[in-house]
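Example S7 (structure tokens).
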């Protein structure tokens, strides 16, 4: 009599001979996959719901045991089987981890899809402070995936949802981060600069109330950008100077990125005030910080700031050199001349949403 394992091997051999399956991996363990997606769908649909769930549970448990010894186990597979097993908490965790990995590979469309799946999984859980907090955090992560895709209107919608959830949760720290981002979207997407300033002032008040220095510098930075957009350069100068000074004293990488961004916008602000020597100094400082950071967007932004200041002074060779160096980065929008003839710039962020 054959063993169960022998039956399995013979069955697999028959399916392989009939070209339903093929060997996907030989090492470290033999793995098969369906040759055609339709075959997989028909086989899966033939299983009863209870049986499907039970199989997903067993596969998930086996993969989790393997992951302890083999960190290379693909997180997306864990996420897929957690969803099939209706293990919603695990599914959410694995989907978020998978999204981080895909964003690191610049696969933003795939990351957005994974995070949308995480939000749907969250809806299957009863509402609690923990699920509300996760619902806000997943939306903050989703916005990072959507920005490089140019889906700014979607980002604003997602952040408005997050605002309502954070308010319901009563979490001022999360609400502050959401408001800080909404300010950027109101400015960049809707052109509602005065509304952006109003929202960012709320974020700044929350930052001061909670002692959140990172949020405070982000609020200063974004409010400074909004004042720049309406031509209130004095207010922009005050807020961007505070941000640059505070961020420059913090060795954390994200703080250093904010320092570079703030110096770039200070350069633009001072250039519009005709203070070209100071503008050049801040543009060079932004570039110095950016060159020390492993972050292409920040380097592109700093170079565009240098080019904009040079352009304002009529130094075309210097401007062309800086802007040519910035041009290979697709996330960067090069400066256009404003109505007064002064260089204006609109900057878009990738991972860190500058």
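Recovered sequence:
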């Amino acid at each position: 009599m054959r063993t169960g394992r022998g039956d399995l091997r013979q069955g697999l051999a028959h399916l392989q001979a009939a070209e339903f399956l093929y060997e996907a991996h030989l090492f470290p363990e033999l793995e098969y996959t369906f040759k055609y997606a339709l075959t997989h769908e028909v086989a899966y649909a033939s299983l009863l719901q209870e049986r499907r769930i039970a199989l997903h549970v067993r596969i998930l448990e086996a993969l989790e045991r393997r992951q302890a010894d083999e960190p290379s186990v693909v997180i997306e597979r864990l996420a897929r089987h957690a969803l099939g097993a209706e293990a919603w908490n695990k599914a959410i965790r694995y989907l978020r981890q998978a999204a981080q990995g895909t964003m690191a590979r610049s696969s933003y469309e795939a990351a957005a899809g994974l995070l949308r799946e995480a939000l749907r999984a969250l809806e299957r859980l009863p509402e609690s402070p923990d699920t509300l907090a996760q619902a806000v955090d997943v939306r903050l992560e989703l916005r990072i995936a959507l920005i490089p895709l140019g889906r700014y209107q979607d980002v604003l919608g997602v952040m408005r949802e997050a605002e309502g959830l954070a308010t319901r949760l009563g979490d001022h720290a999360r609400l502050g981060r959401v408001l800080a981002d909404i300010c950027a979207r109101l400015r960049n997407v809707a052109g509602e600069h005065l509304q952006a300033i109003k929202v960012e002032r709320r974020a700044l008040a929350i930052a001061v109330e909670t002692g959140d220095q990172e949020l405070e510098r982000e609020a200063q930075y974004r409010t400074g950008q909004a004042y720049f957009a309406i031509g209130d350069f004095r207010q922009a100068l005050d807020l961007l100077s505070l941000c640059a000074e505070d961020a420059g004293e913090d060795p954390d990488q994200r703080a250093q990125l904010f320092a570079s961004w703030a110096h770039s916008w200070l350069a633009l602000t001072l250039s519009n005030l005709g203070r070209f020597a100071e503008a050049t100094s801040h543009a060079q400082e932004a570039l110095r910080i950016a060159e020390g950071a492993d972050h292409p967007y920040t380097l592109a932004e700093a170079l565009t700031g240098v080019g904009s200041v040079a352009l304002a002074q009529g130094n075309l060779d210097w401007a062309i050199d800086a802007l040519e160096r910035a041009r290979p980065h697709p996330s960067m929008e090069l400066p256009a001349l404003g109505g007064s003839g002064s260089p204006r710039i609109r900057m878009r962020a990738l991972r860190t949403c500058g």
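Notes on this example. Strands lie at 21-25, 31-34, 336-337, 343-344.
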